[in-house]
């Protein structure tokens, strides 16, 4: 969806590219006068066409935010700012239309004049006015260039049964998704290693038919009001709100994650209140380090204890959704 958005160039880069391309244009005519005139006109037309087509490609390639699934709308607002994105796309489209208008009002003058010097002067004036227009939206082009880079990192979310893994930072969510699917999120011993959404898949074949389930690794959550959450945490909330058919909440009873068990329990309680229409599977990780007397499912991403059983439980629960 977002991979087709082209790289966005700055105003200077757009203008330099357009000028370089026009310099290669020569119109041959046995009459030297007509050759000069036709070449100047062709170069001017090509200059305008190159710029307007490039600007139009940017506007059309970016998705219409209001038509995207709610998950993407929220993630774009968190990581980019939807209003700013719309404003910048509008500004670039204004530059395209204004550039086209400038040329439309001057093109007849180019074709009617019989003086080469006057023709070249008009060409210079058009180049100057158009350059001024494009440079007026340079800040918006820079914003779109950054937005394009961010959008290309977004995962492809399918409309299939989905499980979201949630919990405090460093409890082992990324390790678990590595165990359950082919996704390869970064695993490291510090909070907020996962700074974006990762998507993996669980596949099950029944009677030669493959059923695919989606599994999502989210950034670590902290138990605090939404207004106090950072952009990384808000991505996890967005995934839980819009994508989860099932939530696997992961505990670290060893507390080596840096958070007490009582804090983790309070988060689970709060999430159950917020997402009261979603099923939860409660799992304690790091069973090779600490094993409690609770009735929660026990696993270890280090020894792989309980992983196969958890996978089967996730699939069977999603099948009933």
Describe this protein's structure.
The protein is an alpha/beta fold. It has two domains: 11-151, Up-down Bundle (Four Helix Bundle (Hemerythrin (Met), subunit A)), CATH 1.20.120.1190; 162-319, P-loop containing nucleotide triphosphate hydrolases (Rossmann fold). Helix content is 51%, strand content 12%. It contains ten helices and six strands; from the N terminus they run H-H-H-H-H-H-E-H-E-E-H-E-H-E-E-H. The protein has helices at 11-22, 32-61, 70-79, 82-112, 116-136, 138-151, 173-180, 231-242, 261-274, 307-319, and strands at residues 162-166, 198-206, 209-217, 246-251, 279-284, 297-298. The protein has a six-stranded mixed β-sheet, sandwiched between helices. Helix 1 (11-22) packs antiparallel against helix 2 and helix 2 (32-61) runs parallel beside helix 5. The radius of gyration is 28 Å and the shape is elongated. Residues 185-194 have low confidence and may be disordered.
């Amino acid at each position: 969806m977002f991979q087709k958005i082209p790289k966005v160039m700055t105003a200077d880069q757009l203008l330099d590219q357009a000028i370089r391309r026009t310099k290669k244009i020569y119109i041959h005519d046995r009459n030297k006068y007509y050759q000069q005139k036709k070449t100047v006109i062709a170069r001017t037309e090509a200059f305008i066409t190159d710029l307007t087509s490039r600007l139009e490609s940017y506007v059309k390639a970016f998705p219409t935010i209001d038509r995207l699934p709610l998950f993407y709308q929220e993630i774009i607002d968190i990581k980019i700012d939807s209003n700013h994105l719309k404003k910048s796309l509008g500004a670039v489209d204004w530059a395209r239309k204004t550039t086209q208008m400038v040329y439309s009002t001057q093109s007849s003058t180019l074709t009617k004049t019989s003086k080469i010097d006057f023709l070249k002067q008009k060409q210079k004036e058009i180049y100057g006015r158009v350059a001024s227009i494009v440079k007026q939206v340079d800040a918006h082009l820079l914003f779109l260039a950054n937005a394009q880079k961010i959008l290309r990192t977004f995962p492809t979310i399918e409309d299939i049964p989905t499980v979201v893994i949630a919990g405090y930072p460093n409890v082992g969510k990324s390790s678990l998704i590595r165990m359950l699917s082919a996704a390869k999120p970064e695993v490291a011993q510090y909070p907020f290693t996962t700074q974006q959404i990762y998507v993996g898949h669980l596949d099950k074949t029944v009677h030669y038919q493959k059923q695919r389930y989606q599994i999502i690794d989210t950034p670590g959550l902290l138990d605090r009001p939404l207004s106090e959450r950072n952009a990384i945490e808000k991505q996890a909330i967005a995934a839980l709100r819009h994508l989860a058919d099932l939530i696997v909440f992961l505990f670290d009873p060893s507390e080596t994650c840096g958070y007490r068990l009582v804090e983790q329990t309070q988060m689970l309680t709060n999430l159950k209140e917020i997402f009261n229409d979603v099923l939860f599977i409660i799992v304690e990780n790091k069973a090779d380090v600490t094993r409690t007397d609770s009735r929660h499912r026990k696993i270890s991403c280090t020894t792989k204890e309980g992983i196969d059983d958890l996978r089967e439980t996730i699939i069977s629960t999603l099948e009933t959704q």
